[in-house]
Amino acid sequence: MAPQIISPFDPTARTRLRRMGLLTVEDQVNTNAIETISTLQAGLLFSQILDSCGDWEGTLSVCRRITAQAAQIKDRQILLLISIQYDAIAKPLPEVIWWISGSDALLAPFVRGFVHHLNELCAEENSREGGDVM
Fold first, then answer.
1. What Rg do the C-alpha atoms of the chain give, in angstroms?
2. How many CB atoms neighbour CB 65 within 10 A?
3. What distance in Å separates the CA atoms of residue 18 and residue 20, rounded to the nearest whole number?
4. Which of 35, 92, 108, 111 is surrounded by the fewest CB atoms within 10 Å?
5. CA distances (Å), origin 53, targets 59, 82, 89
6. Are the C-beta atoms of residues 79 and 1 closer than 8 Å to each other?
7. Helices (H) and strands (E) in the chain, counts
8. CA angle 104, 59, 31 (to 5 degrees)
């Protein structure tokens, strides 16, 4: 028997989101988990962009462009913007983001937290004027 293909848009996805701790048993958003994941993923992407660009100026430019564009578009479009950035640095979209993409309840707090943290990283790194590259 061929394995069943499951996507974040299938009705069974809620069960997986609960197993990951993103939804409670009452199907409520676990805000602590979403805040942690959005912070973690934004920090990882920032570092991956830095690795790809190799310098602070290029990294801050890319991240500022993402946060500026995100301020003008809807949540689902922000997710697309994040996905495009992963493509631009030849990295796969993290699986947790893929699963969040199918849930309107999780998508909004995730992308807003992600953009907020990316913006904080830009401000923090800009104030350090370079600091430690890695």
1. 16
2. 12
3. 5
4. 92
5. 6, 17, 9
6. no
7. 6, 0
8. 25
- Tell me the residue type at 7: S
Torsion of CA 76, 90, 95, 107, to 10 degrees: -20
Residues of the chain with pLDDT under 70: 2, 5, 128-134
Residue type (1 letter), 36: T
Residue at token pair 């701790």: 21
Per-residue pLDDT, 131: 52
pLDDT at 15: 93
Give pLDDT, residue 127: 74
Q: What is the pLDDT of residue 1?
A: 72
90-104 residues labelled b (16+ CB within 10 A) or e (exposed)? eeebbebbebbbbbe
- pLDDT by residue (tens digit) across 79-99? 999 999 999 999 999 999 999
Distance of CA 22 to the CA centre of its chain: 14
Residue 23 phi/psi, 5-degree rounding, is -120, 150
